[in-house]
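Section: Multi-chain targets

For targets with more than one molecule, the full set of components is provided together so that the structure can be written out for the assembly as a whole rather than chain by chain. Components appear in the order listed by the source. The example entry contains two components.
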Amino acid sequence: MKPAAFTYARPTDWSDAVKLVAAGARPGAGTQSLGPLLNLRLAQPHMIADLRHLPDYAGVTVTAGMVRIGAGTTHAAIEDGAVPGRIGEIMAGVARGIAYRPVRNRGTIGGSLAHADPAADWVAVLPALGATVVALGPRGERRIAAAVFVTGIFATALDAGELLRFIEVPVLPTEARWGHWKFCRKVGDFSKATACVLSLPDRLPRAVFAALDGPPVVIEDAATLVKDPAPEAARIVDRIAGLAPWRRAIAETALRRAVERMVAA
Amino acid sequence: MSKIAISLTVNGERQQLLAEPREQLADLLRRDLMLTGTHVACEHGVCGACTVEIDGAPARSCITHAGSCDGASIRTIEGFGDDAVMAALREAFTREHALQCGYCTPGMLVSARDVVLRLPHADEARVREELTGNLCRCTGYRGIVRAVLSVLASRQAQ
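Its structure, encoded as tokens over all components, is:
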């Protein structure tokens, strides 16, 4: 199908973009999630504010202990190594598994996170990496932990009129151990269960389980899961209400396999 | 509804176009420029039939808003006439019976060319992974994968 009619604005500075979004415009970046919703007429915004022409829309900068990623940075750029170091290596591996290369060439990390599809990859991975979201609104910038950013299906902690501006991830040591597994019926398809685990030398391992009918589940202390994955995965899944038996089975498998796949650089 | 002005370079030619604000790139290419080699099928980014090159990288033209492409350089299947890699792929697709109805072929070729250039050492598993975003519903994938692998092999041998 074709989208319902909307008007189109192309702001060239961030304050204009914020004003448009505060007035009800739907922000558009790579439109790889929004485009299908428009074509299916599941989304019928009165206006699209195209963020692609804004300064510093995309790009990666490294400051003390932190990598700052412009919200408009594409999955393909991350796949090809735009983020340096161990954290970049982890993120490149994740990016390669997002949809298909032609989608990754347009789709953006910020757009995907702000869209907040429970099955989306960054929705699961960024909380595990200890990322912070920098939002920009009428009153300036605001920082939100990725672990509490997605609040439900297609719902986020962004206020009306706020845009996702940057994602900040910590620089990780080469010893950082990372495991990630998702269940897809076909390569590039939406995940039915995603799990990931990050283990750093001097702190408790953190795990995330996602692709449920709600926000990702963050397990801040995943030490037991890492030590004894199968029974602990079953206990974690037991605490999630309303899962069909098939979903329970792949959820447990996802958690267990994420731990089994943990490797350092 | 007032139209928006879009300036594009399509297959090497500058174009000044007017589009409805809601228009996706695929429809602009097909309707205004009669470049009907770009096929529209699923219209939600899954099947890959509409894949074209935008600023040198393959992308879905059915879910890429035309307005957002202002200033971009687009190459459709009609624009690869003098491209050596595409010529080799076309020959290999014919030889390996990698198409039947041909509906998926333009998108398949644009994706395949990207694989050949970006991943010159791709093995069969990687080629299959990379082509999962292009659906074929008649010949299946064996001939397509063979065709791409044969072009990779002949380039490695050069």
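Chain A has a mean pLDDT of 96.
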